[in-house]
Amino acid sequence: MIEEIGTTEQGDLVINVGPQHPSTHGVLHLVITLNGETIKKVEPHLGYIHRSIEKMCESLSYRQFIYVTSRMDYLSSHINNHGCALCVEKGLQIEVPARAKVIRVLMDELTRLASHQLWWGAMAMDVGALTPFFHAFRERELINDIMEETCGARLTMNYMVPGGVMVDIHPDFQKRVKEFLRLFRTKIDEYDELVTGNVIFKSRMEGVGYLSPGDAVSYGCSGPTARGSGVSCDIRKLYPYEVYGEVQFEEVKETGGDCYARYLVRMREMRQSVSIIEQLIDQIPEGDFQAKTKAVLKLPKGEFYSRVETARGEFGVYIISEGGTTPYRIKFRSPGFSNLSALDHMARGHKIGDLVAIMGTLDLVIPDIDR
Amino acid sequence: MNKEELKIRLTEVLPTVVFEEGGEWTTMIIDPAAWEGVAKELRWEGRLDFDYLFCVTAADWKTHIVMVYHLTSTVHRHTLVVKAKLDRDRPVIRTVADVWRTAEFHEREAFDLMGVEFTGHPDLRRLFMTDEWVGWPLRKDYDDPVNMIKL
Distance (Å, rounded) from C-alpha B142 to C-alpha A185? Predict the structure, then answer.
């Protein structure tokens, strides 16, 4: 239902933002009720890119369905694939070789860096600074090149399969990652210099879109959105998978709860990702990159749930199996879906210009929400 | 807290509770009619304190529909799965949007794709599909010759 643009009985103005609007970063449609310039209500309308991935997966085998999940949160495609692979491995009780575990974590963290870089560029662009976008994409391109060499893709990787990873890493992988890190260490300081302390940027972000810790949990927020409110929710720390239990890193939290706090969480998280990659890049064990699995995978009857931390928050895969070669029912718990539900609460009482800043710090990826 | 300890604690608070065996987490079967009271107990009883509803799912079993709620406590760090069996011809259950606010969106999704009706829901409309859409796409007997979704 698309409401007519017009005024309500109380004299409030109702306007549409999207589905084609640069600040929604995709096909998200918001119907906003305004009193003057002040937001009274924000109502998201979803479904413009709903492909019914859950239904599709019911007719795909346990090897095939992973490919579809790259098309949900396309900026965290490795981590989506990872969550699915973990869930199938849980059902089949496959032990993943040590080499594959480390490669997976390296890929996850590179993905997180690339995703946060894009977010940083787009965030600054949303509040009116165009230059950071080009800075961010310049370095993100290097990560994409590394991915392309090993996975053969730059966006939808489909690299993690049940039992390990699809192919071994490229011989130049370690060298190129180290080159990238050497460069990126200086660039991330440059990012901070360029935007983080900027007075205009800070005045757009500070005190805007406050989310209390209690509300963050009640709205089911996760990832940097909840950690900006001081909620401890990093799946890598709370329920470590692969080698996250063995590497040293800090769960980044801020207590501000506003847009600036969420911004700082992601900026600091990038440094943590760099640190994780540095710890592991020379420690990739020798051996198989994939466990031996049967050609046709059959999950035993039962229910399996796996949780991973994407760049946006907690991603869950819930498989109900009847013992066949395809899932009986599959549910993807997408982080963006829950984070978006808090938008109305955060935006009420703010000016319409602030809505763009709030949406920017939620880091929405619409195909992840619509599925 | 392990599964057995959580079971003991749940039995203390909710004496009539029924558990399902198997699975990674403690699983509880509830009577849909009692869900409102049970949900409030799970959320507000200090010993349980399930404040984070991270997943809401509906599954069609052809003879009935099962609602599945995944809950975690950010205080005690324990996880619980709650299941409610609903009549397939008229699946109705009380909303929990007033207990966990994230449920408002998740329940709209379950209504949209599985046709579960949530009584007391503040805004129960289709979420992904258009308002004029007929049928519940995630049900097993749903067939759409135009928008082909079978591969």
Answer: 53
**Which is nearest to A285 in space by CA: A185, A169, A201, A180?**
A169
Asked if the Cβ–Cβ distance from B149 to A341 is below 8 Å, we say no
> Do B138 and A304 lie within an 8 Å CB cutoff?
no
Nearest 5°: CA angle at A50, between A123 and A19?
Answer: 50
Dihedrals phi, psi of A332, to nearest 5 degrees = -105, 120
Asked if B102 lies within 8 A of A218 by C-beta distance, the reply is yes
Whether residue A335 contacts residue A313, with contact meaning beta carbons closer than 8 Å, is answered with: yes
> Identity (one letter) of the amino acid at B26?
T
Closest CA to A344 of B37, B104, B87, B14: B104
Residue type, A287: G
A vs B: CB pairs below 8 A:
90
Torsion sign (Cα): A318, A323, A325, A329:
negative
Farthest CA pair distance, chain A: 70
Separation of alpha carbons B139 and B22, rounded Å: 25
**Whole-structure pTM value:** 0.87
Contact (Cβ atoms closer than 8 angstroms) between residue A84 and residue A62: no
Q: In whole angstroms, how far apart are CA A344 and each of A9, A211, A359, A363, B133? A: 21, 11, 10, 15, 26
Q: What is the ipTM of this complex?
A: 0.87
User: Which one, of B48, B16, B47, B51, lies nearest residue B30 by Cα?
Assistant: B16
Q: What is the DSSP string of A18-77?
A: -SSBGGGTBS-EEEEEEETTEEEEEEEE--TT---HHHHHTTS-TTTHHHHHTTTSGGGH
Q: What is the mean pLDDT of each run of 10 residues along chain A (371 residues)?
A: 64 81 79 88 88 86 88 89 91 89 91 91 87 89 90 87 89 90 90 87 88 90 91 89 88 89 91 91 88 85 90 91 89 91 90 88 88 84
B90 in contact with chain A, both atoms CB, cutoff 8 A: no
Q: Which two tokens stand for residue A144?
A: 């994409």
